[in-house]
Amino acid sequence: MSETSNLSTLSRIRVVLVQTSHPGNIGATARAMKNMGLDRLVLVQPKSFPHAEATARASGADDLLARAQVVDSLAAAVADCQLVVGASARSRTIPWPVMEPRVCAARMLAEAGQGAEVALVMGRENSGLSNEELERCHVHVHIPANPEYASLNLAAAVQVLTYELRMSALAAAGQLPEGEILERDQPLATSAELESLYDHFACALATLDFYDPDNPRQLMRRLRRLFNRARLDRMEVNILRGILSAAEKAAKGKARG
Amino acid sequence: MSETSNLSTLSRIRVVLVQTSHPGNIGATARAMKNMGLDRLVLVQPKSFPHAEATARASGADDLLARAQVVDSLAAAVADCQLVVGASARSRTIPWPVMEPRVCAARMLAEAGQGAEVALVMGRENSGLSNEELERCHVHVHIPANPEYASLNLAAAVQVLTYELRMSALAAAGQLPEGEILERDQPLATSAELESLYDHFACALATLDFYDPDNPRQLMRRLRRLFNRARLDRMEVNILRGILSAAEKAAKGKARG
After folding, report:
1. Residue numbers of A between 105 and 164 with CB closer than 8 Å to B
2. What's domain A191-256's architecture?
3. Domain extents for chain A?
4. Binning pLDDT at 50, 70 and 90, where does residue B136 land?
5. How much is the pLDDT for A56?
6. What is the pLDDT of residues A85-143, one digit of tens each?
7. Looking at chain A, which terminus has fewer C-beta neighbours within 10 angstroms, N or C?
């Protein structure tokens, strides 16, 4: 099987909600999923569905609700799945392989990319998944929350886990920027342009009689550090030089006046 | 300044909500923050606060609501901050430095750890932050959502961003497991114990007349691969050997009978 881990692979990962009590959480889950590019929602014995509150919280993701599959058991929800991941608060009698969301998302995406059917199973709002349900899972995923207040809202947990799936898919597709995106609408200034700017500063500051008598070089060093750190673009250099020219002109006019 | 990036640093990062319309989102934000170990919430001109819906959605995080600071302007909310990060949908007239959540969280945590006051500013449910508000920020953070359905619920966005802050803090504190956590309640089997198990399998399968006539070695290879992959613990080895012994006994009894 070829590895084709990319954004379309997200469609091969279903989210299964087990016995959800509040329809609002079903709607918020659908919205979180669609925001992250997932689209297959399976509901095991939802208490109230369809429901106006689900539709309201789904916002524009009501298409996921309309296509949601409602089934009678977890077994039916995951029958065709090769990888079943259960969300767990991790305090179970029988320890089980547990992953944090980032590592788990990478695994889910990799297996889905190799053709596996993958399920992310989320438990009830108050009691999560039962031990029997957790034992049906290959691995458990645990969000490392504040131990003093560890219970996330159901849809919030889905948001975190599907966010990690999307980040993993973006990384696999080479679409995840590693650092700061400098969204520039102008080309960056060249070294020569910057040196001209610093020369202009030096001249203008002399014209303005503005210098540090104790250490005249210190001032230029600080200006260089500031503007180099800011990574000036060509237009910014032109703006600064325009200001310096205006200041020079004013100083000369004043000297003449 | 010393670098002390750890979990307590999270308390030095405030979340600022600007003109939130729905009090439920304020409560859900407080819950998301507390789940991730943040505790400073600042509200700029909330439409309705305090409000029963905020308290309901906060679940057990009503202490954060009780301590939330309500102010009249974004300027007042961030006046003492050295790093101001604004959540952005990234389609602005003036491009601005934009980071994805992971990179941005690392930066926020590092600066907070060095003593800076840090703010994460979240805009209105429908229209986000204005250009003027975004220009007050040092950097923008953008959640790389599905471009066809990019607008996250306010509290869901806070959940993702504070999750990344917590993950960054856990990583800095050396508390983030890199891979699968094998929660074991038994010591792993040693190589010698596994070899004894495989010998036992070979004997038992011979006793049971169970073998692959075309390739007798292939079966043992598959069993080795299965159990090595599963990383058996000592108790599991004992269980399997118990089953083999019982099978051997049954086969011999049947042979005698």
Report:
1. 139, 143-146, 149-153, 155-156, 159-160, 163
2. Orthogonal Bundle (1.10)
3. 7-172, 191-256
4. confident
5. 96
6. 999 886 655 678 889 999 999 999 999 998 899 999 999 999 999 988 998 888 899 99
7. C
Under DSSP, is residue B168 helix (H, G, I), strand (E, B) or coil? helix
Residues of A in contact with B176 (CB under 8 A): 100, 144
Decide which of 3.40.50.1820, 3.30.70.60, 3.40.50.300, 3.40.1280.10 is the CATH code for B7-172: 3.40.1280.10
Distance from CA of A209 to the nearest CA of B (A): 32
Q: What is the pLDDT of residue B6?
A: 77
CB-based contact, B34 to chain A, within 8 Å: yes
AA identity, residue A206? A
User: Can you give the pLDDT at residue A2?
Assistant: 36
Q: Which residues of B touch A103 (CB under 8 A)?
A: 177-180
The pair of three-digit structure tokens given for residue B176, joined into one six-digit string: 């983030």
What pLDDT score was predicted for residue A188? 85
pLDDT grade, residue A43 (50/70/90)?
Answer: very high
> How many Cβ atoms are within 10 Å of B126's Cβ, its own excluded?
8
Subunit contact B103:A178, Cβ cutoff 8 A: yes
For position A7, what pLDDT does the model report?
87
pLDDT for the residue B255: 64
Residue of A nearest to B96 (CA): A183
Of the candidates A95, A149, A155, which has its C-beta nearest B185's C-beta? A95
pLDDT of residue B193: 92
Give chain A positions within 8 Å (CB) of B36: 145-146
Q: How far, CA to CA in Å, does A2 sit from each of A5, A115, A116? A: 9, 9, 12
Q: Cα separation of A160 and A149, whole Å?
A: 16
Between B42 and B115, the more confident residue is B42
CB contact under 8 A, A183 and B97: yes
CA nearest B94 in A: which residue?
Answer: A185
pLDDT value of position B3: 38
What's the CA gap between A142 and B113, in Å, rounded? Answer: 26
Interface check A99 vs B, CB under 8 A: yes
Contact status of A32 with chain B (Cβ, < 8 Å): yes
Question: What's the pLDDT at B250?
Answer: 86
pLDDT for B120 beyond 50? yes
Going by their DSSP bridges, the two strands B181-182 and A97-99 should be labelled as antiparallel
- Asked if A117 and A74 count as a contact pair (C-beta separation under 8 A), the reply is no
* CB under 8 A, 24+ apart: contacts of B45-51: B45/B18, B45/B19, B45/B71, B45/B72, B45/B73, B46/B17, B46/B19, B46/B20, B46/B70, B47/B19, B47/B20, B47/B21, B47/B22, B47/B23, B48/B23, B49/B20, B49/B23, B50/B23, B51/B23, B51/B26
DSSP secondary structure string, B74-120? HHHHHTT-SEEEEE--S--SS--EEE-HHHHHHHHHHHHHTT--EEE
pTM: 0.85
